[in-house]
Amino acid sequence: MTVEVSSLKELVEQASGTSGSPDTQEYFVNMGPQHPSTHGVLRLVLKLDGERVLRCIPVLGYIHRSIEKISEHMNYMNCVHLTDRMDYLSSIMNNWAVAKAVEEAAGIEVNDRIQYIRTIFAELERIQSHQLWWGVLGMDLGAFTPFLYGIRDREVLNDVMEETIGARLTMNYVLPGGLMADIHPNFVNRVKEFIKYFRPKLDEYDDLLTGNVIIQERLRNVGVLSAQTAVQYGATGPVLRGSGVAFDLRKDHPYGVYDQADFEVPVGTVGDSWDRYWVRVEEMRQSLRIVEQLLDNIPPGDYLVKKLNSKIKLPEGRYYSQLETARGILGVFITSDKKDEPYRLHYRSPNFNNLWCLEPMIKGDYIASLIGAMSSLDLVIPDIDR
Amino acid sequence: MDREALQAAVCQLDSSIRPLEENADRAAVVVEAAALPAILRRLRDEPEFAFAQLLDHVAVDWIDREQFELVYHLYSFKHKHFLFVSVFIPREDPRVPTVCRLYPVAEWQEREVYDLFGVLYEDHPDLRRLFLEDDWIGFPLRKDYQDDFMLDRPR
C-alpha cells in the first residue's frame, strides 16, 4: 500500500479544478494569518461558492515554538514554566496540570491548603479567561463596548491575583510540590469584594449582549455542532458541553477540592454558537459559586510541602494527567527514563482539537457566520501550535 | 470497572492483544499495527467498552529499541474510563493504518505525528505537514534529529 504525502499547494490546485453551480464560480480566499478575529496567527484557507463556505482548511504553525522538544532538554521544574506560554489565559491551570503529573509520578501528596488555593486560583482564572472571551466575542461581531466592559472587570480581578502572584498574564504560581508563595494577607477579603462587584456586572453582561437581538441573530443556529460530531471531532470543554454532552472533569473525575464544592455544569441543547456562548457565561456564575464556598474554608498549613530541587527524577514509566482548563482538557503525557529530564513530554491541548470542529460546523454556511462560530470556540492559537 | 478489570476485558477481545506492563497509572494494552483499526472499531462500538472519543494520539521515539510507539488515548463517556492502546512499529519503515474513519479527529492528530516523527499513515485522506512548511527536511521530534539551529547542549 502506498502513502501519498501532498502539500497545501497541490491540495488547492486539485480543488480549484472543480466548478460550482452554473452561475457562480468557486474560489479560494485566505483569511489571516493576522485576522483581527483569530486572536493569534491562524490562517484559514476558505473555498467559497459565492458567500457560502465549502471548505475551511486551517493552516497552522506560524507561532510553533516546539515546546515539546525543548522540554526534552529541561528538568521538570523548568518544564512547568513553558506551559503558561501555551494557553496564556489558563496559565495557572497549565502549571497545575504538569505539577499534578509530576506529583502523581513521584508520589508526592500535597496538603489541603495547597489544594484549596489551587482550586480557587483555577476558578478565578477561568472567570478571567471567560471575561476576555466575552468582550472579544462582542468585538468580533462588531460591538466595541463589550470589550471595554470585559477588560474593565478583568483588570479588577487581575489586581487581586497580581497581589499574590506578581504577574497579570503568564502567571507562574503552581509548582510540583506546592505553590510559589503563600496567598497575600489581603487575598480573601479582596476576592470577596470582587465577587460582590462582579455578580451585578454579570447581569449587566446579559443586558448588553445576551439579550441583544443582533447578537442572538448572529449566534443562534450558526455553526451547529451536534453532540455526535463534537465527540468524534475531539471537542472538550465548553465546546463539547455546548453540544449537549455533560462532561466536565471537575465533576466526573474530580481533582483538587472540586468534590467539596457544590456547583452545576451548564449544558447546551442545540450545539450552536449561542449554546457555547450561554455555557461560558453560565460558567462564570458557577465559578463564582465555587470560589465563594471554598474561600472561607482554606485550612492552615504550609504552602510548599516538599522543596523539590531541579534534579528531581521520576521513576521509569508513562504518566498521564489531565485537567479541565478554561477551554477544555489539557492532557500531560510524560515518559520518563529515570533521568531528570522527560524522555518525551506531550501536551494534549484543548484548542488543537476544538479548532478541528470548525470545518464541520461551518460547512455550507455564510462566510459572515464564520466569525461568530470561530469566536464561540474561544481559540488561543499559541496553545494549538505549542 | 477498575483498571485491572478493564485491561483484562480488553485483552479478551483478541488473542493478539496483550497488556502493557511498563505503564504506571492507566489501563494500557499493546496491539499489532495491522489489527489496529479493527480493534479500535470494536472498542468504540461494543457497548461494554463504548470508547466514543479519541482524546489524544502521541508518538514516542524509542531509539535504542529502534521502534516508534504510537499511543491512542481513548475515553468512554458512558463508563467514564480511560484506555491507552499502544502500537509498536519499526523505526526503519514506520507505517500504520489510519484510524481517521473511526475517529475523525485522528486526521489532525495523525498529521501532527507525521509532521514531527515521519510516521506514514496508510489510507490517510490528506497526509500533509501540519505545523512545519511543506519543504521542511527531517522530522524534529525524532531523537536523532540534527538542525543547525538546535542548541548544542552536552548531555
TrEMBL record, chain A:
The keyword Translocase applies. Keywords: Cell membrane, Membrane, NAD, Oxidoreductase, Quinone, Translocase, Transport, Ubiquinone. It holds the Pfam family Complex1_49kDa. Its main location: membrane. It is a peripheral membrane protein. It catalyses: a quinone + NADH + 5 H(+)(in) = a quinol + NAD(+) + 4 H(+)(out). The keyword Transport applies. SUPFAM superfamilies: HydB/Nqo4-like. GO terms for cellular component: plasma membrane. It comes from the Bacteria. Residues 140-308 form the NADH-quinone oxidoreductase subunit D domain. GO terms for molecular function: NAD binding; NADH dehydrogenase (quinone) (non-electrogenic) activity; quinone binding. It is found in: Cell membrane. Its EC number is 7.1.1.-. NCBIfam families: PRK06075.1. NDH-1 is composed of 14 different subunits. Subunits NuoB, C, D, E, F, and G constitute the peripheral sector of the complex. Belongs to the complex I 49 kDa subunit family. NDH-1 shuttles electrons from NADH, via FMN and iron-sulfur (Fe-S) centers, to quinones in the respiratory chain. The immediate electron acceptor for the enzyme in this species is believed to be ubiquinone. Couples the redox reaction to proton translocation (for every two electrons transferred, four hydrogen ions are translocated across the cytoplasmic membrane), and thus conserves the redox energy in a proton gradient. This is NADH-quinone oxidoreductase subunit D. It comes from Stieleria maiorica. The gene is ndhH.
TrEMBL record, chain B:
Keywords: Oxidoreductase, Transport. NCBIfam families: NuoC_fam. Its EC number is 1.6.5.11. Residues 29-146 form the NADH:ubiquinone oxidoreductase 30kDa subunit domain. Belongs to the complex I 30 kDa subunit family. This is NADH-quinone oxidoreductase subunit C 1. The keyword Ubl conjugation does not apply. Pfam families: Complex1_30kDa. InterPro entries: NADH_DH_suC, NADH_quin_OxRdtase_su_C/D-like, NADH_UbQ_OxRdtase_30kDa_su. It comes from the Bacteria. One of its GO terms (molecular function) is oxidoreductase activity, acting on NAD(P)H.
